[in-house]
Amino acid sequence: MSSTDPQHPPGWLTRFRRGTGSGAAVLLIAFGGCAVAAFAAWLAPGADTAPAMSALKAAALVLLAGGHGGLVLDGTPVTLAPLLVTVLLGWLVAAHARRQESWSGFAGFATGYVLTAAVLAGWSRLGSTHAPVLGSAFAALLFVLVVGGLARSAERLWSRLPDRWQRVCRAGGLATAGYLAAGALLGAVALAVHFSDAVALQRQLAPGAAGLPVVLLAVAAVPNAVLAGVGYLTGPGFGIGTATSVSAFSVHTGRLPVFPLLAGVPHRPLPSWVAVPVLLLPALLAGWAVLRAVPANHGWTGRLADCAAAAGLAGLALAFLTGLAAGDLGPGALRGVGARWWAVGLGTTVLVLLGSACWLGVEALRGRLAHSVGASLYTLPAKAEPEPAPRTAAQPAEPVRSRTAS
């Protein structure tokens, strides 16, 4: 019988081998995407005079950095990851992990992914710049187990949740998406306001087509900038090394690296009458979305508890994403680039819960006013019928007819 016969499914070893090939293919597909961008930068006139193999190795290094394995750049450890590459890897891993026939196939998938990451880390050394083999392999294992395991189990776990908790999770997802959209809008506005400064920095680094590598790196770091904006909108702000810290109420700027994306970093804090609405507006919008998504048949205490749970889930999600987006560009003054994950999570939870409580109070006040108005209308006296006018003496009385025939 053939191993593809539905009556005789393949054994665990066959499924493991297939999964191994699938895991290796996923990482190689992502490597191909990074290689296209690296070759575009290499082919640009005046961009680089290094051989083509160096462009391929640079693509492998960027890919491994996106998997949070870290780099050693000219002897300096770098843990900041371009989050757009991380998003690409997560999408590919989740899609292919769900296609595995069984958990033995998924084990093979993880094995192939980790082995390929270790091989790429050993091959991609460029002088003193390299990706640690053991660190890259461990990061790849953790990445594929978390992302792939959640992708395989999410549907089953979701179906087992009660309807109330499903709605709470949707509410938390809405709040998370709202803050990510607000962070992206804030970053876009800041960069548009300082667009001329960004162009000047780009020309300072490399004019014309020679600046394509810098542009590609800036595009890969856009999600990092979005999460820095989320840190700004949730209160704690973000830092760029030890000398620069930015929040809505205080700004301390030191010497920044020459990078176009950093042109949007504010140089002065907002006035208090502007900073407070900037922080409260996203919170009110997120609170309104949360209150609309949670069940409405549990009373105001139950709804407040559901809003608190949704706010906590949003805080956990944004804290996790902020932790992924933060890192170090080196020792000393370049340590701590990004927002503090725990502060962003706590600020998000408090602000979303505050926004939800405000809208819940508005609903309660509106219901109380409607009840009071309805009760007052119900107790108004009915309109009295007009009494007939009294008969005067001048009016003749109506003759009384006899009941008998005349």
Task: Describe the global form.
Answer: flat
What is the residue-averaged pLDDT? 85
| Largest pleated sheet | 4 strands, antiparallel
Strand residue percentage:
under 5%
How many domains? The number is 2
User: How many helices does DSSP assign?
Assistant: 12
Low-pLDDT residue spans: 402-406
Biggest sheet strand order reads 5-4-3-6
List SSEs in N-to-C order.
HHEEHHHHHHHEEEHHEH
Q: Structural class, please? A: mainly alpha
The level of helicity is: 55-70%
What is the radius of gyration?
A: 33 Å
Number of strands: 6
Distance between the termini: 124 Å
Describe what this molecule looks like in 3D.
This protein has twelve helices and six strands. The model is unreliable at 402-406 (pLDDT under 50). It has two domains: 10-160, no CATH class; 162-376, no CATH class. The strands form two sheets. The chain has a four-stranded antiparallel beta sheet with strand order 5-4-3-6. The protein is mainly alpha-helical. Helix content is 65%, strand content 4%. Strand 3 and strand 4 form a beta hairpin.
Strands, helices and their partners?
Blueprint: H1 12-43, H2 52-66, E1 71-73, E2 76-78, H3 83-98, H4 103-123, H5 133-160, H6 163-193, H7 195-205, H8 212-220, H9 222-233, E3 238-240, E4 245-246, E5 251-252, H10 272-293, H11 299-325, E6 337-338, H12 341-378
Antiparallel strand pairs: 1-2, 3-4, 3-6, 4-5
Helix pairs in contact: 1-2, 1-3, 1-4, 2-3, 2-4, 3-5, 4-5, 6-9, 6-10, 6-11, 9-11, 10-12, 11-12
Keywords:
406 residues; mainly alpha; 2 domains; four-stranded antiparallel sheet; two-stranded antiparallel ribbon; 12 helices; flat; disordered C terminus
